[in-house]
Amino acid sequence: AAMVTAEGIPEAGIDSDSRMALYGVGLLPVLRVTLSDPAKLDATFAKFEARAGKEMSVGTLDGHSYRYAGNDDARAIFAVLGDQFVVTVVPATLGEDLLKGVLGLTPPARSIADSGELQALAEKYGYTAYGLGLVDVERVASTFLDEQSGVNSALLAMMGHDSGSLSDVCREEIRAVAGVAPRVVTGYTEMTRERFRSNTVFELRSDLALGLQGITSPVPGLGQQHGGLLSFGMSFDLPAFREFYGARLDALEADPFECELFADLQSGVATARAALNQPLPPMASDFRGFLAVIEDIKGMDFATKQPPTEIDMRFLVATGNAQGLVAMGAMFSPEIAALELKPDATPVQLPLPAGAAPIDTAWVAMSEEALALSVGNGGETGLAEMLKAGFEEPPPFMSMDVDAGRYYGFLGDVMTSTDMSDSGEEVSAEVAQATGDLMRSFESMFERVSFDVQFTERGIEMPSTMVLAD
Question: How many Å apart are CA 455 and CA 241, to the nearest integer?
Fold first, then answer.
């Protein structure tokens, strides 16, 4: 992974041109940052040690010194090597030759940076040079299945792991399971002064990726921008999901796991099949998803534990039989029957019982494929627009958009106004204040945050956008 810092930390010698990489030397994580002025970082460490009243231990390796802290089992190492700041965690007994490889003093025999794999991923997924991440699940699995050398050999020996104790059947089946989601790839697709866009892809085996694409349904407005405080929704086709799930059970019955490590999973197939065979109620079969849009919440005060005095929101239910859903409600409620709703998206005021505060008014409207409800002043004005909104393609499985400034402001108020002792947590006033201040700093940084969960031919994708405040 690599990232250019937005502002940097100049006092520590990390400026806006610095690069950051988090990678693995075998199973050991290593963070590496380029420094514009290595002496500044040394001075920063000296200040930390002076404040703590204790200096870190110092070791040497090939003429290079490094700081470390830890115990007899593990050490956190902080080293400045030329213009590189390297941070890692290693077993305390790791030999010097292996430590040289971890710190980069000895070049690796194989490097992902030199293989061109990262560049190929960036081109495939449209990622920029600002950030790219990769987790190779199959390679991680092979570390525990195949004979290792170097750092991994030492680590596995310390862990007491013996790959030779695994049967050939287990090895084969573990590799097959790792191949279900062989890689996780993440990166930035845009980074400007206005917004950050990123995407994370959980790559899936092609048959699973194809099957998942069929379990979502079009929901009006889902995945679109609605403004307000928060919007959240999901879509799913229950009959299609049952078909997809049934196909997975068919596969496990036709070719069951033989490895004892998957015994619990295999033994649960019969129970899952019995549950799947239960019929769905008609309304559940017609259900397609929902979308909630909270325009505003007013009057809430965390300091005095004052609940909201007013809520303005809209809620949409997508269904293959909106009129049938209303007809069923009318059977149980004369008030709903009296509304005489038509599938023309025309809002009709819904009578509220006495004492329904903080809800002052409520409206309901219907189209051929959805039913929508709004509460709060002026809520009826957005119902027709909500019902007539278009569909995203592919339909998201999940979508959320939030006013990040207000969200982090809420969190800051919660941390500084709520007595955490009520929840049984021991949080000092200083920690609560510091956390609240941190949330308020985010409040001034971000304007909106949104993300989707999509099922595509590549697998499960999670695109997100962070709009920066002015």
Answer: 13
